């Protein structure tokens, strides 16, 4: 099911020079993908061997870049495993132009920014989201606090205290965290949340990674069915689609015009660039049982997103089993949830 509002640009960034923060991380390298400077004091830079991860806590707790520097004789080149942010994106505090950002306290859209819960209408219109159908929760649009950090890991924290005077505010008190770390060249992210409200709270979480997209990019994943969507990118029905079989075999990012949720995901997906002899495999813990693939036609964007719930799950019909199929979840007072995501690069 369609999940995302996206930047409208369809042109790749202009090739320029990236200056690395410290010689102990990496010396300067020519990077044709971004002008990001990792000496920006608002960023947290993690390193492990030749791998660097750049985190932007103030931009929705986002990841700004994840890359390797490959040394070749007297030169070196940068291999991005996620699409990197630019200085302009950081200056604009735009999570949609980061490499990836967290999704709390729900993923994807909510129809008309409202739903019924526990006998009352939850109206999220006017919370600053800017979309007719509330999108991705709110934590991605707020700064996160930096906690414990090491050379290769950082903990980020976010707490939402509802404001009854603020129109459209999420009316539940909760705490969320991310532990982001490099384990060798692999990226590991643990997402966690706890309901601090006196009553129950509907809930979902995920991460929103963008990948480099070329004419040869291939996505491989095992899924069972696809949520078909209407013109508002909201679910209509769950059923077969050519992309289901194509993903099993290895689907070109250009094969379909996609912005859809997939069910029956086995929690592993590989994004490969065969002409570059490299790939990255994303794996997830339960309950990240749903996958979003955003691969629009004639565009440079590509997202393959692990999520706990499908689009508009809070409005799913309880009687016909749609809630169960959509990942609808409720946290009890004080209940906590935690699950991990991993990205493992491979160079042939």
Automatic annotation (TrEMBL):
SUPFAM superfamilies from the UniProt entry: Galactose mutarotase-like
Pfam name, any one: Aldose_epim
Signal sequence, start to end: none
InterPro entries: Aldose_1/G6P_1-epimerase (IPR008183), Gal_mutarotase_sf_dom (IPR011013), GH-type_carb-bd (IPR014718)
Disordered as annotated region, ranges: 1-36
Domain of life: Bacteria
Protein name per Swiss-Prot or TrEMBL: Aldose 1-epimerase
Taxonomy of the source species: Bacteria, Pseudomonadati, Pseudomonadota, Betaproteobacteria, Burkholderiales
């Amino acid at each position: 099911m369609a999940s995302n509002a996206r930047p409208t640009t369809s042109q790749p960034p202009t090739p320029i020079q990236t200056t690395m923060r410290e010689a102990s991380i990496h010396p300067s390298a020519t990077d044709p993908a971004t002008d990001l400077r990792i000496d920006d004091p608002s960023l947290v830079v993690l390193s492990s061997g030749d791998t660097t991860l750049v985190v932007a806590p103030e931009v929705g707790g986002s990841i700004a870049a994840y890359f390797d520097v490959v040394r070749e004789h007297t030169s070196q080149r940068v291999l991005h495993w996620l699409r990197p942010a630019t200085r302009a994106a950081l200056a604009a505090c735009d999570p949609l132009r980061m490499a990836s950002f967290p999704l709390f306290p729900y993923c994807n859209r909510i129809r008309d920014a409202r739903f019924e819960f526990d006998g009352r209408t939850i109206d999220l219109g006017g919370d600053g989201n800017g979309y007719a159908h509330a999108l991705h929760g709110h934590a991605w649009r707020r700064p996160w606090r930096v906690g414990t950090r090491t050379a290769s890991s950082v903990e980020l924290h976010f707490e939402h205290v509802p404001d009854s005077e603020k129109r459209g505010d999420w009316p539940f008190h909760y705490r969320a965290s991310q532990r982001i770390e490099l384990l060798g060249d692999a990226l590991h992210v643990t997402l966690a949340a706890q309901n601090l409200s006196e009553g129950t709270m509907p809930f979902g979480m995920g991460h929103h990674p963008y990948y480099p997209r070329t004419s040869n990019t291939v996505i491989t994943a095992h899924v069972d069915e696809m949520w078909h969507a209407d013109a508002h990118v909201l679910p209509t029905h769950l059923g077969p689609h050519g992309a289901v079989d194509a993903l099993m075999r290895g689907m070109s990012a250009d094969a379909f015009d996609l912005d859809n949720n997939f069910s029956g995901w086995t929690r592993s997906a590989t994004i490969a660039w065969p002409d570059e002899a490299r790939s990255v495999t994303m794996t997830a813990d339960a309950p990240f049982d749903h996958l979003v693939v955003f691969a629009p036609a004639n565009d440079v964007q590509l997202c393959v997103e692990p999520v706990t719930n499908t689009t508009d799950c809070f409005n799913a019909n309880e009687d016909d089993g749609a809630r169960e199929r959509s990942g609808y979840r409720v946290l009890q007072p004080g209940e906590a949830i935690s699950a991990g995501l991993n990205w493992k690069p491979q160079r042939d």
